[in-house]
Design a protein that fits this description.
This protein is mainly α. The chain has five helices and no strands.
Length: 119
């Protein structure tokens, strides 16, 4: 399962890079409001992804659920950005596809650790 969690890091890095470029193009006021919230959430999720490899396997499910929550939060923020026309449909679709890939890996890790987390 270690290989799956390692795949998560470069995918999440690509997602962060894409979103940073997108956030830079937001209207000025929103760049500092919703943009800062979004960045904070992405960096917190990245930090938790990095913890997964370093902590005891019995604690991993806790961190995976935190990451999953942060990603759900980012999906909501993306829908708000689209609805308010801060981003266009194409940027929204690309962002959601990137999140979808991350979510699939995350879902697999959560299932694995939920099933194999017996002490």
């Amino acid at each position: 399962m270690k290989e799956n969690s390692l795949q998560l890091i470069p995918k999440y890095e690509r997602y962060i890079q894409y979103m940073l470029e997108t956030i830079l193009k937001l209207p000025r006021v929103e760049k500092f409001n919703i943009g800062n919230e979004f960045k904070k959430s992405m960096y917190q999720a990245l930090e938790n992804i990095l913890y997964i490899e370093k902590i005891d396997k019995y604690q991993r499910l806790y961190y995976l659920n935190i990451i999953d929550t942060k990603i759900s939060y980012q999906r909501i923020l993306l829908r708000i950005m689209l609805k308010n026309k801060y981003i266009d449909e194409r940027k929204f679709k690309v962002s959601m596809e990137l999140i979808y890939e991350i979510g699939k890996i995350l879902g697999g890790l959560i299932k694995y650790y939920a099933k194999n987390n017996k002490k």
